[in-house]
Amino acid sequence: MRLITSTIPNNPERFTLMEIMAIVTDVDGTITDARSRLELNAVKEIRHLESMKYQVIISSGRTFCQIAALSIYLGTSGVLICENGGVVGFKNGDIRTIGKRENAEAGLKILREKLGDLIEIKGFRSMYRIIDIPLERNFPAEVGNMILREQQVPAHILDSGVALHLIDRRVNKGRGLRKACQMIKLKPANVATIGDNLNDVDMFKIAGYSIALGNAPEEAKRSSNYACKAEYGKGFREGIAHLFKEGILKKI
Questions:
Q1: What are the tens digits of pLDDT across the range 63-86?
Q2: For domain 101-168, which CATH number applies: 3.90.1070.10, 3.40.50.620, 3.40.1620.10, 2.40.50.220?
Q3: Cβ–Cβ < 8 Å for 18, 190
Q4: Is residue 159 annotated as part of the catalytic site, yes or no?
């Protein structure tokens, strides 16, 4: 496996990383604009990466059905990480699940007892959502997580910036990325990740290289190798340009 030597901006130390063979991207806030519309130049960049034989893997809090459809229209070839890592699979419907839905259901019952009307299911409870339960962002995620810990419920809340995702405590995007890499016979070190929120940090921690967009919280930026100045889909393009500039990705 080829090794690459590069430099993290604002960090003079040089480091060695495995050859990057796939790009993992979040969706909402990463390849969209501020109104959740796809940024067309980000779509163009994704197709350019695929044309150079880099697998693009989509990682999102959305359902498998939503992400499978998005993957078809974007033209990505990589495995899909859905429901914040709770569902991982291919567009043909070959999926794996991590965690148990009943743990999220137990958490929902406790949160309703403790927080009452603040607990609202976001949208309709789709029959296609397998592992997590999306909630409206009516309260801080940490408040809910404190309650779940105190009540010893094996669930936690991940904040995607779009919804609060109530899910089995064992599930996060990092776990989902590990499973995805197993399915396509890569190591997490062979992957670069791009995201814009706190639920992306778990995959930042295990990837070979990580990029946070300009609209990401400071904690996510601190957890990344590179923080973009540009936001949303424009930040995605900046992040990809950075990977080529640093020699982490190679132009063909």
A1: 999 999 999 999 999 999 999 999
A2: 3.90.1070.10
A3: yes
A4: no
